[in-house]
Write a structure and sequence with these properties.
heterodimer; A: alpha+beta; Dipeptide-binding Protein, domain 3; five-stranded antiparallel beta sheet; about 35% helix; B: about 300 residues; mainly alpha; elongated
């Protein structure tokens, strides 16, 4: 053990991680001979090269290398810029290489804890938030992450105006003036009015990551001042793992970032590989034979059932903030037709048969999110009522609808066929078109007019960036979310809903918010449904028994905090 | 020259249909084809069974192939009630395979009809006209042949949209150049033959000469090629459907069934096995039949 400690000490000194004072102190403490200390001091700068490991070295040099964590994913992504990507995979990669100032604690969707920040505090009326950074935080490019870097990063996030920027913009529309660098380690965010949800938003895994300003400054161009193109393919954060390989169709590989500010004491993986596996059956096989360590979602109900009975694997099932629904084309379908389709949908069959019971009926806001109405109107399957409403809406027996389905998703395909069979019972034809995910997302997020789109725009799923009903509804149902990256693909517009959402955005107390959201949910379900809501998702993660440290959080879906995870020897 | 002269010339021409010698040889070859070669017989029987299923399948299915019962009958193994088990929606796999037969053969017929008609016309024109016309038509044909067939079909199918009609268009586009090449080669040979020369020298019009003397002599070769290509057309249709480019749910097309079944093959072996067997048998049978017919109908293979 003594040899290991000495060797580590020498290695750290030679790599410039220790300054001369630290070498002297630790060398003496370890009883290393004077000539060696002298030799090391000669090789070391006088003033402190950043010494991020101070905490680690103080703690006794106890890094236990757990080797490689192998995670199965369904696909990579072409955009890993954390300030622009809204994709699940983009977020999952960001959580490996970047950090937000705070994150949700454990499985809580309410309580946040420090992440990049060492500590944080809010004033009494939630108008001023102060974050203190730890000493000597480094980005993966070796530059220092201080309060100014945090401010610059938030300015980039806001000004880039891509993807999830509304997460910050709702609270900090003018980051240049609202964010203040107090000193190298302290940064404050001042609000224009009380913002009790600000910390929750800063814990989102969509957007508020701190990116190295040096990285984008070096790679900025006249046309791309924020170096979005460079950051889309390169991750330069402060997170525990450096992205070393990102092949969209094959794998994403991370390596331990030696200078990570929380240090490496205790058991951690030195490498993480997220491997793209396209086939359900192959995914299952990799888990059964122990080649892969973890998977979240991406299996059929039958596979989950079989794997849950495997003694070598642990299956965790947990609630999420995600809701599944089918987007209805509000331009081509009137209110009666949309309500009729909602009555025709075979909810029980879909939940049991298609999702193997991994859904629970809900409206557009899941029960796990603040603002959900426990008495929200849920359509029953009622084919007589459906026929009546569809006829009134201009779709009598003999009419037909068309529905998009993402071919990669087994549940969507089955759901569409169950819906098809249900509609056939009242003489309505449903033609199903399978398309790939990229095309589907282009249809939903793109600018094509709704008149040119199918009547039923596939199975959509959404969860909020943070625990807030407004954030769940705004990107999907506001008029401003039609085209241009919003997901109001069915071009649904309701004036009263717009008014409610404007009020809810600046809510003053929780009661007011609940009241507003209750009315919003009534409009979105019973009165003027823009979608058919299947239910909220129960998610599963399957791990090898020797993998520990994974704590599912209803907001951080299909992603992992790799640094928290480790392997135990049996 | 009178019309009677022309008729006499036609009667003398050694066309397939009018040649007693050829007919006799054909009968002998067919007998040898079906009786002497057991493999051919098996192929013919299988083809006959599939044709029967394609024509009368809807009256033979024990269950409605589209009837969904996901709650009670999802992925049931083979039993007396469901001879080949059920799929992920609780539908009877046996009934769906029977209905899938019609779809597969229907697509093959449509695809090959277009490919044969169009390819034959192009081949006849190119072969008979020769010169610049031949050059232009053959370079056009070469353009299509330059692409790997399935890749071209995927590209066409993907760009036109995912449905069975577009699959047929894609496959017909892939298949016709082969017929054009085949027919052209035959025409180049035939047009130099004496009976054609004779007809031409007696003043027979070009169109009539092609229709009466050249085309009938090409038919046998085309039939052989069609028989072989049916299997490939069925396989290509299923391949495109397997990739999600062909038939769409709830179609019981075999490729679509296989695509869905691959998600369940660890727990429901029957779901992937039976459509796979149906597809294999069809392709095998048509290939065997095609090879056998080639032996029986091709004059050059008669002496073997």
């Amino acid at each position: 053990m003594a040899n290991t400690i000495t060797r580590s000490f020498v290695t750290a000194a030679l790599s410039g991680q220790l300054n001369r004072r630290q070498i002297l102190e630790r060398g003496l403490a370890l009883g290393v001979s004077t000539p060696l200390i002298a030799a090391l001091m000669k090789r070391t700068p006088a003033s402190a090269a950043p010494a991020p490991q101070s905490q680690r070295w103080r703690s006794g040099l106890q890094f236990e290398d757990n080797g490689t964590l192998n995670v199965i994913i369904s696909s990579g992504t072409n955009d890993i810029d954390p300030h622009s990507t809204y994709s699940t995979m983009g977020s999952a990669i960001a959580l490996g290489s970047y950090e937000m100032l705070v994150r949700y604690q454990g499985d809580s969707t309410e309580v946040v804890k420090p992440f990049l920040a060492e500590s944080f505090e809010a004033n009494e009326d939630n108008t001023l938030f102060t974050f203190t950074l730890p000493e000597n935080v480094l980005f993966h490019d070796g530059t220092v992450c201080d309060a100014q870097a945090v401010k610059d990063s938030m300015i980039r996030f806001r000004r880039l105006e891509m993807g999830p920027y509304i997460v910050l913009q709702r609270f900090v529309d003018d980051p240049e003036s609202q964010i203040e660098v107090v000193d190298a380690r302290t940064v404050t965010f001042s609000m224009t009015r009380p913002q009790p949800l600000f910390l929750a938003a800063m814990a989102s895994s969509y957007g508020p990551f701190v990116v190295s300003p040096a990285a984008w400054a070096e790679n900025a161009t006249e046309d791309d001042p924020w170096a979005h193109e460079f950051i889309s393919f390169n991750a330069v954060g402060t997170g525990p793992y450096r992205l070393v390989e990102n092949i969209t169709t094959e794998l994403v590989r991370f390596e331990k970032f030696d200078e990570y500010h929380r240090g490496w004491e205790g058991p951690h993986f030195s490498e993480v590989v997220m491997r793209v596996v396209n086939e359900n059956s192959t995914r299952r096989q990799l888990l059964e034979e122990g080649t892969s360590d973890a998977i979240t979602s991406l299996l059929t109900g039958e596979d989950v059932q079989a794997l849950s009975e495997n003694p070598n694997l642990t299956t965790m099932i947990y609630p999420t903030t995600r809701v599944n629904w089918a987007i209805l084309n509000a331009v081509r379908l009137g209110v009666d037709a949309r309500r009729g389709l909602s009555y025709a949908f075979p909810y029980d069959e879909v939940i049991e048969g298609s999702y193997s019971g991994m859904l629970e009926r809900s409206g557009p806001i899941p029960s796990t999110v603040r603002g959900a109405d426990p008495d929200v109107f849920l359509y029953p399957t009622d084919l007589d009522r459906a026929a009546e409403l569809l006829t009134a809406g201009g779709f009598p027996a003999g009419s037909s609808f068309d529905m998009l389905v993402v071919s990669e998703t087994v549940e969507d395909t089955i759901t569409a066929q169950l819906f098809q069979a249900s509609l056939a019972q009242i003489g309505i034809d449903l033609s199903i078109t399978e398309i790939d995910l990229a095309t589907y997302e282009e249809i939903i997020f793109g600018d094509a007019p709704a008149e040119e789109k199918e009547t039923i725009l596939g199975s959509w799923e959404w969860w909020p960036d943070y625990n807030d009903a407004h954030n769940q509804l705004a990107p999907n149902f506001l008029e401003s979310a039609i085209g241009g990256g919003g997901s109001n693909g069915g071009a649904w517009v309701n004036e009263r809903f717009e008014e409610i959402m404007a009020e809810a955005e600046v809510f003053e107390n929780e009661d007011q918010l609940l009241e507003l959201m209750k009315e919003a949910q009534q409009i979105l379900t019973e009165l003027d449904p823009p979608a058919i809501y299947y239910g909220e998702t129960l998610m599963y993660t399957i791990l090898q028994n020797d993998i520990q440290g994974f704590v599912p959080n209803p907001l951080y879906l299909e992603s992992y905090f790799f640094y928290d995870m480790y392997r135990v020897s049996e | 020259m009178t019309a009677a002269d022309l008729t006499n010339i036609e009667a003398m021409a050694p066309t397939l249909t009018k040649s007693r010698t050829r007919q006799g040889q054909l009968r002998r070859n067919l007998k040898r084809f079906l009786v002497d070669n057991k493999l051919n017989l098996i192929g013919a029987i299988i083809v006959a069974v599939f044709l029967f299923l394609a024509l009368f399948g809807e009256w033979l299915t024990p269950h409605d192939p589209y009837a969904v019962d996901i709650v009670n009958a999802k992925l049931l193994p083979p039993s007396t009630d469901h001879l080949m088990g059920t799929d992920e929606l609780g539908r009877d796999v046996f009934s769906r395979i029977i209905m899938g037969t019609r779809i597969s053969l229907q697509v093959a017929v449509v695809v090959l009809s277009f490919a044969v008609i169009f390819g034959t016309i192009v081949g006849l024109i190119a072969g008979y006209a020769g010169g610049l016309v031949d050059e232009i038509l053959m370079r056009l044909t070469d353009m299509f042949l330059a692409f790997p067939a399935l890749v071209l079909a995927i590209a066409i199918s993907a760009s036109l949209g995912r449905n069975l009609r577009n699959t047929m268009i894609a496959l017909a586009t892939v298949f016709w150049p082969w017929y054009a090449r085949l027919v052209r080669a035959q025409v180049l040979s035939l047009k130099e033959r004496e009976f054609v020369e004779a007809a031409r020298s007696l003043g027979m019009s070009r169109n009539r000469l092609i229709l009466k003397h050249i085309l009938p002599n090409v038919v046998a070769v085309i039939i052989i090629q069609i028989t072989i290509d049916v299997g490939y057309a069925v396989l290509a249709t299923s391949s495109l459907s397997f990739l999600g480019l062909g038939a769409q749910p709830p179609s019981p097309e075999w490729g679509t069934m296989l695509a869905s079944a691959r998600n369940y093959f660890r727990d429901a072996w029957w779901y992937m096995t039976f459509p796979g067997i149906a597809l294999t048998l069809t392709v095998f049978a048509f290939n065997v039949l095609g090879d056998g017919l080639q032996d029986a109908l091709n004059p050059r293979s008669g002496s073997r």
